[in-house]
Write a structure and sequence with these properties.
Helices cover about 20% and strands about 40% of the residues. It has a seven-stranded antiparallel β-sheet with strand order 3-4-5-9-8-7-6. It has a single domain, classed as Protein Transport Mog1p, Chain A. It has three helices and nine strands, in the order αβββββαββββα. With about 170 residues, the chain is of the alpha+beta class. The longest helix is centred in the N-terminal third of the chain and has 16 residues.
Length: about 170
């Protein structure tokens, strides 16, 4: 029999934490990879302060953050987001800073870098594909949480992304 150094109050706390983590998300939606882009209703989004634009399925909830970043939530995940940070803020939030780029890219006519990295959110990490350009003395990153290549919905979001000239 294995012995544990965890006393009953500790065991209850761990059990409670496990329950909390697994129950945080109860929304049951089909995987995004199973959605057909042509069967979805698409809407446009333009950020009011940093005038980038993109189209996204109306199934997503838009969560604007201060400073120009926006999360596009679907079910319990964030399959797409736009980050607008300086390096200090980006490092604090666990963005691509400190990771090696995998290739040079063009994001709506702006030269930049593509990063693939593990984004850590506390005890969880998610494979993230980021397309990053310098913009207005900061960095603008279009990111996708994806286990491999972008799925068809994410690719359509990428293709719709626009940034005005500076």
């Amino acid at each position: 029999m294995l012995k544990s150094n965890c006393h009953p109050p500790c065991a209850y706390a761990l059990l409670g934490l496990a329950f909390f983590i697994t129950s945080c998300c109860t929304e049951n939606v089909p995987p995004l990879s199973e959605q057909q882009p042509e069967q979805l209703t698409w809407v446009s989004y333009t950020h009011p302060a940093v005038p980038y634009s993109l189209s996204y399925p109306n199934l997503f909830a838009v969560d604007e953050e201060k400073g120009g970043s926006v999360l596009f939530r679907y079910g319990c995940g964030v399959p797409a987001l736009v980050r607008f940070h300086d390096e200090k803020e980006g490092r604090r939030r666990g963005a691509w800073f400190g990771h090696e780029p995998v290739e040079d890219i063009q994001l709506h006519g702006h030269a930049g870098k593509k990063y693939i990295y593990e984004h850590d959110d506390g005890p969880f990490s998610t494979r993230t594909v980021a397309y990053v350009v310098a913009y207005r003395d900061k960095y603008l990153g279009l990111e996708f949480r994806a286990p491999g290549e972008l799925n068809e919905v994410q690719q359509r979001i990428f293709d719709s992304f626009t940034i005005p000239a500076e």
